[in-house]
Amino acid sequence: MSEQVHNRLAVVRAERKVSRQALAEAVGVHYQTIGYIERGQYNPGLDLALKVARFFGLPVEALFSLEPFQPLTDEVYGRKQ
Amino acid sequence: MTATRYDRRMYAVMNDRRAAAVYATVTRRRVLVGAHVVLTVAGVAAWIGTVFGPGYGPAIVVAVLLLPWVLLTGMLNGSTRGLLELRGRMLDERQLVERDQVRALAHRITLWLLVAVVVAAGSYGVLTDEPLRAAVTPVLVGVLAAHWMMPLWVAGLRVKDDLVDDMGDIGEVGAGA
Questions:
Q1: What CATH number matches the domain at A6-77, 3.20.20.10, 1.20.210.10, 1.10.260.40, 1.10.10.10?
Q2: Do B172 and A33 touch (CB under 8 A)?
Q3: Predicted complex ipTM
Q4: H-helix or E-strand spanning residue B43
Q5: Model-level pTM?
Q6: Distance from B162 to chain A by nearest Cα, in Å?
Q7: Residue B165 — very low, low, confident or very high, per pLDDT cuts 50/70/90?
């Protein structure tokens, strides 16, 4: 049974203002595949995950994780009680 | 392996979005698949009637059904973005996985369909004491059609809706910055 891989691709893509189509063309996949990854309906292979990370200039663990991601604002500023 | 001109042409055809509204939602795709199943069954029945029956009526039915059947087949292939029509080198890793899953599921469904046909034919033969020889060819043709079309029906039912891309045409901006 395959494990759920969490990702923050949609957040990073929105922040960088990159369309799914542009990202898909850059990493050599169909644009629908980016949507499937963002929705958690497909876990990318290692080479695709590395290509996506390289495209954004980020370490792969910044985009994909076996554990759920914390919101970025929490990571940057910390959650205020 | 390098894509040929045929590959690129087929890729463009299968990703042509002009008819996208027809298969944009799950419900519409289910209706499409249902209509395709009905047309296939009717077409095969009419074809069997043409070959084994006395009159020309079924041949006219086949001719009438052919065009809508081809159109629906094209729409289903469009909804899957050519999952079963494109060569493997034109599909990405997710599509190759999906194609394998579709084929495996279709194979399993066809297997159970065959089991049902065998049980039904055997039961009919035992209960009525009628020879089944005459039914062998029509049944085989029907099973062949189901075997041929099942992957397309399964693929059509498994397609997920497209997400709206809120970045629109600004996709090139700030890509790797």
A1: 1.10.260.40
A2: no
A3: 0.84
A4: helix B26-52
A5: 0.85
A6: 7
A7: low
